[in-house]
Amino acid sequence: MExxxxxxxxxxxxxxxxxQNDIVAELKDDLLSQIEDREAALERPxxxxxxxxxxxxxxxxxxxxxxxxxxxxxxxPTMYPFWxxxxxxxxxxxxxxxxxxxxxxxxxxxxxxxxxxxxxIQSAFGFVSTALFYAAAITLVFWFFERNQVRFGFLDQWNPxxxxxxxxxxxxxxxxxxFDVVFEALFLLWWIGVISFATTFYHHGKPVPFSMxxxxxxxxxxxxxxxxxxxxxxxxxxxTPYWTRQRLLFRIVLNIVCIGLAYxxxxxxxxxxxxxxTLEMAKFGNAQTLLNKSAHVVLVxxxxxxxxxxxxxxxxxxxxxxxxNTRAGAAx
Length: 332
What we know:
Elements (H helix, E strand, L loop, with lengths): L1 H11 L7 H23 L5 H11 L2 H7 L12 H29 L4 H35 L6 H4 L16 H18 L8 E4 L2 E7 L7 H20 L5 H22 L5 E3 L12 H45 L1
Antiparallel strand pairs: 1-2, 2-3
Helix pairs in contact: 1-2, 1-4, 5-6, 5-8, 8-9, 9-10, 10-11
């Protein structure tokens, strides 16, 4: 009954949290009762094709969940799951854009608490007005669909075997994807020179500039390529929040490449150049030496984090493989 569990898990994702367990239990009893009746009539267990046909007859998980929601006055139960999904996606996108703009403005003009608070207040008003506009536009579109009985073809053509595995281990948290999108966007804009961050520190009240050394130049394009790839993966994860074999393999390869780049950079003695290379910082020693040692430590820490991520992704791949073996055994 692994396919039944996946179907119920998919329905659960569209239900209100407070009612999920009760509704899923009720739906499971109903499905098992239908299966027993079919098997009694055929005098044999249902095969995979017959089980898939029964689930398709029950309806797409999104539509099944909508039957258990209270009747909406403006958007009916058929369109409500799509409307609500579109609204959530819109809020994520608009919130990410405003968060990115705040980060750019604060970091490019010099960080201060008062400036940050001012930018947050302005962005909050901008976010609310923009979100309300798009929320109204989305509602109008779905109201039109509702009134004209528009039906989406994929609701009738869906395949039960394509449902995600019934495990939260492979689900991607949206807040993690949002953070990844914003972080990668900020890094990309900085790397290509669209925005710049403060590159000075103060020593006895005197500003001391520092910059990246020429040792970075051979790695400019590889770092840009890996950053673009990471950004693309984060966007895909935000849209479809569950891991697949292809995406896990892609992230493993990407992390291996990044660790390789970090290793090559670690071999460089001078990654940061200080305006006054002879500057001594009391008990801390030479400023340029201190910053370069810090840069090397950061490279090691980042590599360790990526290595840990690779281990976690390999475990997820085994979980997917076990899931595939379970399906193959059920089919046999």
